[in-house]
Amino acid sequence: MNEGKRVEKWPVGLSFSDCLVLFGATAGFLGRIPYAPGTWGSLPAIPLAHAAHALPPAGEASAIVLLCLGAVYLAGRAGRLLGREDASPIVVDEVAGMAVALAFTDTSLFVVLRAFVLFRLLDITKPFGIGWVEKRVSGGIGVVADDILAGISANLLGRIWDMVTQNAW
């Protein structure tokens, strides 16, 4: 018995390029962790966002757009390889969404933790039409779009928090 763990069938006999796709789509195989793969998959976005903050604003925006486009490609192709569009090991969408949640913010521990908690909460509960998008858009775009919306929502809620508290934290 798997005791609540979802076990995805992992393909065998893959080409090298397919292995690279699965490596990227699973965020270095973090998505294969049996419990809370999306939470684990969100973590690589933190150093990526920190590195993007060192770029000028246009560079940061470009890096995030490229990450999101790459996530769409990887999620779509990995879904076909795994035989299920939004298979649980595919967590590149969480990487992209978390990067959006951290876009153009400061990198203090509080802001990163707040973005992480807000993003995961919004990604799991899917309010504000996020769930509607997840159910109606297919392919790699559908896999990634709900996470991008959760990231945008987390980013905006963090900014509202800062305005209301006048960044007193």
What does this 3D model show about the protein?
- The chain has helices at residues 16-25, 37-42, 45-53, 57-82, 92-101, 109-125, 130-136, 139-165.
- With 169 residues, the protein is an all-alpha fold.
- The protein has one domain (16-165).
- α3 packs across α5.
- The protein is globular.
- The model has no long low-confidence stretch (mean pLDDT 91).
Q: What coarse outline follows from CA principal-axis ratios? A: globular
Helix/strand order: HHHHHHHH
What are the low-pLDDT stretches, counting only 5+ consecutive residues below 50? Answer: none
The count of DSSP E runs of length 2 or more, i.e. the number of strands, is: 0
Number of helices: 8
Distance between the termini: 46 Å
Domain count: 1
Structural class: mainly alpha
How would you state the average pLDDT, rounded?
91
What's the Cα radius of gyration? 16 Å
Helix content: 55-70%
What portion of the residues fall into strands of 2 or more residues? Answer: under 5%
Characterize the biggest β-sheet: none
